[in-house]
Amino acid sequence: MTVRRLTLTISFVVAILLLPRIGLTQGTVADYKRASGLREKYLDAAAGMPEPARWIGKTNHFWYRRTVKGGNEFLVYEVDTKTKRPAFDHVKLAATLSKLAGRTIAASALPFNSITFADGERAIDVTFDGANYTCNLTDYTCRRQERTGAFERRQPAAPCTPPAADDRPRPSPDGKREAFISNYNVAVRNAGAKVWTILSTDGSEGNCYELNTVRWSPDSAKLVAYRVVPGYRRLVHYVESSPEDQLQPKDSSRFYAKPGDVVDLDQPVLFDVANRKQMPVENTLFPNPYEVLRAEWRKDSSAFTFEFNQRGHQVYRVIEVSAATGQARAIITESSGTFFCYSGKKYRKDLQDGKETIWMSERDGWNHLYLYDGASGTVKNQITKGPWVVRGVSAVDEAKRQIYFSAGQRSLLRALLPDQPRRHGAHAADDRRREPHRQLFRQPGVLRGSLLAGRHGTGR
């Protein structure tokens, strides 16, 4: 063995022996604490820096947090008046939280970074010290919420469960009648009366009418209700090994159907209230449903619509049922060899009481918007088109026939809006004034106009 080869061999062996020591090298507790505190340290050095804004429900205002000397503050911005105000009294809330925590909490250093408005903005939900609290913004009292396991879900009542004592009848739009469930069947009576009329006789414990599916027609002459055959209620159990508020594990459970389990079978049934006539709807267009969404009436009471998602998610339809005959027809049908993405990528907007419908689809390989003829069920116009996707629709101005929507890829947006800076952290709202883009759809088959700049909802 030459001297050169021996030297290389020794160097290699030494390097291998040192690897475990290098790999196991860790920082000290002080190192981790210093690293963990870097963000707060630098944020405190720059006052007035806003964090991403969050819209408050469907209102025209949003809340955000920004840095101040010594910590942060929460603000609400009113879009209509272009004014901002404190989201709550920080001093009063800090005093309440100090009593709950058993330590002093400064108004500028509240122990949470996010809030959720509740009770019509008269309260906020916050989480600190591993517990959830609801704090009243009038008297600044905070009530600890009962904590459940991380996988716990509030389970809806099983189908065909007898109505609860506080279940209220469904009043007709004119206020003269009310519908309710009696012995698994649909019944109506004059408002406040003791005597009622049974409209159906085919309801039973295993094939019942559900009160929460009852929908009156706008003219109060008819109603639709779903008769439901309950599926299998499979209870799935979870174990939370490291809950935030205790050392011991927690167990939780939820109802969750597995592949092959029988799911609830919903059957829409139409009722002519004045003539006490029941009109079953033929289910040829919606066999083997995974889900049938609730019925929505046309404003002129001529028909109602519902959406059907076939089990396996390979067929999805928008179905219209005539109020005069109970005849069903498909307005829109989506079919795919894989599956139709109904979660997160579905949008539907009926125009002129169903004469037209805006629909979102990936049928050409990209997520785009289409304009349907409500009478014929055919596509009048592909509103958006190209190697990019529509992310979501914020609003539709029917009078101007304009759609406000967000889109990608970024390269497309830069090409169309070269002089418009993009801001990050904005959240889309229902008001078209806050969405960045819009598209005209005036002529069938022709892409009209261009994307125009709008406003971003950012807190400053």
Ends apart, CA distance between termini: 73 Å
Detail the poorly predicted runs. Answer: 12-24, 410-460
In percent, how much strand structure appears in the residues?
35-45%
Total DSSP helices: 5
Question: What's the number of extended β-strand segments?
Answer: 31
Assign a percent range to the helix content: 10-25%
Q: Indicate the mean pLDDT.
A: 81
Shape label: globular
Subunit organisation of the chains? single chain
Rg, Å, rounded: 29 Å
Biggest sheet details = 5 strands, antiparallel
Class from helix and strand fractions = mainly beta
Task: Characterize the structure shown.
The structure is a single chain. The chain is mostly beta strands and 460 residues long. Helices cover 12% and strands 35% of the residues. The chain is built from 5 helices and 31 strands. The strands form 8 sheets. Strands 13, 14, 15, 18 and 19 form a 5-stranded antiparallel sheet that branches. Strand 21 (296-297) and strand 22 form a beta hairpin. It is globular and about 75 Å long. It starts with a helix and ends in a 20-residue tail after the last strand.
Which secondary structure elements does this structure contain, and how are they paired or packed?
Blueprint lengths: L2 H21 L5 H8 L1 H8 L8 E2 L5 E8 L2 E8 L4 E4 L3 H12 L14 E3 L4 E6 L2 E6 L5 E3 L25 E2 L5 E6 L2 E6 L6 E2 L9 E2 L5 E2 L5 E8 L5 E6 L9 E6 L9 E8 L4 E4 L8 E4 L3 E2 L5 E8 L4 E8 L5 E8 L12 E4 L4 E6 L6 E6 L4 E5 L6 E9 L4 E7 L1 H7 L20 E4 L20
Antiparallel strand pairs: 1-2, 2-3, 3-4, 5-6, 6-7, 7-8, 9-10, 10-11, 11-12, 13-15, 14-15, 15-18, 16-17, 18-19, 20-22, 21-22, 22-23, 23-24, 25-26, 26-27, 27-28, 29-30, 30-31
